[in-house]
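Students often ask why we bother predicting the structure of a whole assembly rather than each chain alone. The short answer is interfaces. A chain on its own may look different once its partners are present, and contacts between molecules only exist in the joint model. In this exercise we take two input lines together and write out one structure for the complete complex. Read the inputs first and try to guess which parts will touch.
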Amino acid sequence: MTFQLDYFSLKGKTALVTGARTGIGQAISIGLAAAGAHVLLLGHRDNLQETQTKIEEIGGTYDTILIDLSKVDTIREKLKPIIEKHEIDILVNNAGVIYREPAVDFNEQEWMRVIDVNVNSIFVLSQEIGRGMVERGSGKIINIASLLSFQGGIFVPAYTASKHAVVGLTKALANEWAGKGVQVNAIAPGYIETNNTEAIRNDEQRNKSILERIPAGRWGEADDLAGAAVFLSSKASEYVNGHVLVVDGGWLGR
Amino acid sequence: MNNLFDLTGKVAVVTGGNRGLGKEMALGLASAGADVAVVARNVTEEVLEEIRNQGVKAIGINYDIRNVDGYGSLVDQVIDQMGKIDILVNNAGVQKRHPAAEFPKEDWDFVMDINANAVFYLCQTVGKHMLERGKGKIINIASLLSFQGGLTVPAYAASKGAVMQFTKSLANEWAGKGVNVNCIAPGYMATEMNTALIEDPTRSRQILERIPAQRWGNGRDMQGAAIFLASDASDYIHGYTLAIDGGWLGR
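Now the answer. The structure tokens for the assembled complex follow.
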């Protein structure tokens, strides 16, 4: 049987995307919807109108779910009715926070918050939603990693630690679940024009030095990640497991 | 959305596209709409027919990929017949097994010539054409042995390591000029090249035990990756090696 282009189609699939309000999460939500998936938009306040409107504009469908992922202890309880109502085929763990402070002064509450949102919540979501995928023998989990899954960054030690952990968790889950039809992978975006990078884009010198190092010669756009997300969500990537797909304009090879 | 992966109107060159993974990728690109030029020592009419059955144009060019000096006219020949080259898949590869202590120089040179040198020079020759057009997608076939050392295949490991590295070098130069250069690293695939491994019960068991997906890979697994890296869906991916390995590298 030859490959069919509709292996990239997500018609009939349900995808849950965390951090769907803006940036990468919004672009991935729209990309998955455009490929035919019903998207569960997860945010923590009722302010996802922009993403909702954009999905409506392309004729996609969605539901909205409000959970504060920084309150890790409450996630399981809040997920219960959602898992009962929806058979989730695709989970995109995108929500993430960043906090900048030199390591010597780094605020401990902020450290905990970053680790909670960027790692601990991903483990809980993957465990609760992955359980059903393993039972059904199929599913796709995509974690959003970072260039700081490979590098150290500067003034963002919690973020770096959390994103290294995301990659480790991705491989650990893949090793257990790959043989059960559940693919767990990550996407590592490069420097993308989002809220999280606004501070460094506004710093003229940082902006210049970053741009000079990107072989593609431009910052990435959130839309640049949609193709990778659809690929990893689809039947076209069945033998990709525990992999970190880097979408960085060539940064890591420079 | 599938437009993002659509290759209609594109022209792809696939080396070693006559059999094995190369043939599978040629068929995959064709299924997404690309016209295909198969470059191999003996291109069979059956393969071309199979590709044409996808509703695209296909040509075969009988060529010994070791003839680096002829690449200019090879590329001209494709452009004469197909108009341009949008996608290059450097798939042709060979394997020689000997313990390192006895590895004959002629076999070392044979492997390096085909797996590394030919790939670089074909990238160079086709890359010039792509740079002139300000766009193009090059997919080199790396290997798990771009990351690991393998056993009794030092030339193969060296050649595949080289491919992954110069892919980054080319990307660093060409990414800003609209040309994407990336690799696919297939895992353990059930192909002719691995017949010896598959038929060795001990090695076969050891390998399977280590693949999280619990199966050998197949041609179709390569097709999705090849279409993705050949399409607009991967425009911001440069110098990258996409592993299609059922999780092997993470185990």
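Check your guess against this: Residues 81 and 182 of chain B are 26 Å apart (CA to CA).
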